[in-house]
Amino acid sequence: MPWIDRSPCCLTELDHVRLLKLGGAHPPPALAQLLDAADLLPSREVPPDVVTMYTQMEVTELATGERQRLAICYPHDAEPERGFVSVLSPVGLALLGQHVGAVVTPHTPDGVARPLRIGSILFQPEATGDYVT
Question: How many CB atoms lie within 10 A of CB 12?
Answer without folding.
Answer: 23
